[in-house]
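Example 3.
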Amino acid sequence: MKRATIKNRQKETLLFRKRLLILVAFVLVLVVLLFIRLAYLQFFQHHYYKTLSAKNNITLAPISPKRGLIYDRNGLLLAKNNPVFNLMVNRSQVTDFQQELNNLQLIISISPAEIQLYKREAKQKRQFEPVPLKVKLTDKQVALFAVNRFQYPGFHIQAQLIRQYPQKTITANVVGYVGRINVEELANIDPSNYAATDYIGKTGVEKSFESQLHGGVGYKQIEINASGETVRTLNEFSPQSGVNLYLTIDTNLQQAAKQALQGLRGAVVAVDPNTGQVLALVSTPIFNPNTFIRGISTQDYSALQNNPDHPLFDRATRGLYPPGSTIKPFIALAGLDSGTVTPKTKLYDPGWFKIPGSEHVYHNWMRGGFGWVDLSQAIIHSDDVYFYQLAMQLGIDRIDSFLDQFGFGQKTGIELNDELAGHIPSPDYKMHLTGHRWFTGDTVTTGIGQSYFQITPIQLAMATAALSLHGKRMKAQLIEGYQFPNQPRMVTTPQELPPVILQNPMNWQTVITAMHHGVTNPQGTSHLFGFGNPIYPAAAKTGTAQVYTVSEDNKGKPLPERERDDSLFIAFAPINHPQIALAVVVENNPSAPRIARKVMDYYMLAQKHWKPEQKPHAS
Amino acid sequence: MPLKTSIKQRFQRRDSGTQYRHWWQLIHIDFILLISILLLNIFGFFILYSASNEQFSLVLSQMGHISFAVIIMLVLAQLPPYWYQRWAPWFYFFSLIALLLVLIIGHISLGAQRWISLGLFRFQPSDLMLLALPMMLAWYFANKALPPNTKEVILSSLIILIPAVFTAKEPDLGSGIVIFTTGACLLLLAGIRWRIILYLLIGILLMAPFLWHFMRFYQRQRVLTFLNPERDPLGAGYHIIQSKIAIGSGGLLGKGWLMGTQSHLQFLPEHATDFIFAVCGEEFGLFGALILLLLYTAIILRCFYIASQAQDTFTRLLAGALSALFFISVFVNIGMVSGILPVVGLPLPMISYGGTSMVTLMASFGILMSIHGHKRLLS
């Protein structure tokens, strides 16, 4: 109360009003400051924040294109897209995963392996991305889930197209398979085009025609919320479906050839000499491409890879073999064309051959020899000694330049990227391979298709086709036609390669007739070793390729299975208007002629390509 | 003469001289203030409807909050100012004890605790303190000669600092800052000398490292984030970045009511509560924000006018401080949402969804109306 008496009301009121005015001024300054701040954000920086806002909620979602289908020459589906239904989990909507999983187990059983796979995939995806829990639901499971859907808000069913190969193993080496894109593949593709694609061609046509089969990615502009869920679609740019491909393969012939090779390691290549179209391209043993579709397990894959029979390896275009005696008709042609020998020239075969001045003995496959033989007999009986001498007289350069013209040691150009070229024997190649110079002995063994030969079954088939047409060469063709989405089927034109021209075209007939006699003559090797004598006129040549050089001591003892000789066989028919040319290779087993006969019979007789009135059987 | 009766007599004397020109003055209502508040509330309903993703139930519930708050305001407006003066110390100590109580409960339950639950409803002692502190300080200075001397400044500083620190420790840094600043404004109005103000400012600056030490981890994060929001765009900086995007993308006229993508697609956090201003900025643009600012300014200026017309030390200090309280709440929230102040959890007065802040501010308007309505007209 003492202080109250000193209170000066008027002065205090004045002081208060002054201070209040200062406070009001201060408040107004701050209000203006707020307004300036807002004007800065909303006017001067509006454009910047508008862009950020759009980036927040508008995004492009890629749409995967439909992968092109693959058909055989008859329109049979080899690769298709199957709709499958997957059970997906929206993790943002699932609070207690274990509890909801237990509930779900009541209608759809989910195995621990599937849960493990789910957990692995969930780690790699962003929180709002749906993760598959169970793939390939059955119709019943889809229906069960659809009815009970409301009980499982965090789960939904997603339809997806998955590659399927209806012919399973039959065309696996040709068509190949698709699998998840790996890191190296990712580096070679346009990531934006594959934004919605999980799979990429790994081998065969699926790999070689990846860009055509894949098509172009589509996009939709969608509005998303902060959890990344789609609110609505604003705009859509449809994807461009992949191109459908028609292969020259005849699945029936392919299957017949595969059956003929059943249980053996080998390859069969059948081509139409007139077009170069590959009718069958078989490699055994083979894998089932369908196991690769949704991630093959590491175990299964390493089992395939470490299998000593190499089922993943396409022997038809990548297998490298010495041609053995199947090269003899070509060496004979070289001899005739160069004038080294004439059809009448006879050479003496005592059963062995020695290079003059050398001690090394080259044996004939027939111990006693055939005595005096001309070119025709040499082919019929596959006389090694005749061809040792012929090759030596020709010299390696002339042999090489002649074999070159048939495409030996070169890629045939079949539309498979992984095809290997191989090699024909030459001084350069030997030097490169072994570091040693070329000996005459190497030229001698070249005459019977041993030496440094490394050729593929498809090369052999194409060379046989060229021989059957008197030197006319077609490029190996695997794509018969193609079809862009919503357009008619287009046909690929066969391509001709530079022909082999002989100075005397009569020489073609000489060699072909000799090959024909090898079939018709009961003593001919083709006849003798299993091809027999079919009712249609065929020309053929056997071949045997040594895998291991057998020392004289071990002669007669049975060899381990994998060290036995490979057998080869080339054939075409009918001889005057060839419709099919074949090359067969069987590893460590002599059954190539028998297999060739089965395939040839299937094509000519079962498929009725040979009409008796067309060409009367001469024999 | 006992102090109590002397105060009573003084007010009774003044009351007897009051003349009423309008019917609302009978119930001690300030018409201009009421209209401004209602306009603000109506605008608030539209913003809240959009911010709640068009949930009308939320708006209805907010209307319930407002109705309750208006009733409190009307009741408080009827109580004569001497009543507040008499009860001020009791109210202050009650609030202080309640603050201490939540602090202890929070400590025991090992978590942030701001509430005291009274069965049917719960209340935040820090909100009570927002009203109790100005009343206490005004009571303290009521019979002192102004400007205050050094001893009085120190004592009043303690009256301010104790609840401010308690609140900040809850931890409710936002309310702590508002309590502190409101008290500071009252000291300013009390006529504290500029020299002392300068000392106090220097003292605060020197105390800054000390304050930093007392902050919780997330509070430090907020301050660091305020200094550089891009430091952690998906973590601590996310709120402020998204809020600035919402406001900035609104432009001059906004994206339109209910058309805000930032709030409707959940990019903006807390869009119905603390960050509701960003919804207004996004959908109504600078234009809408300006209208909101003008409404707030109108209310604040009216409050200051009431303070300027108050007739004794207690009422004018109390009215001035309550006006400042309202402004500070608005400024801290908009400043935080627009990125010029650190993120402290404070609602936007009268607009954000929620009842406690609404009741507190309406109660302060009730007290202001009481001060204005019970004023004796000088003849």
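The first helix of chain B runs from residue 3 to 16. The longest strand of chain B covers residues 116-118.
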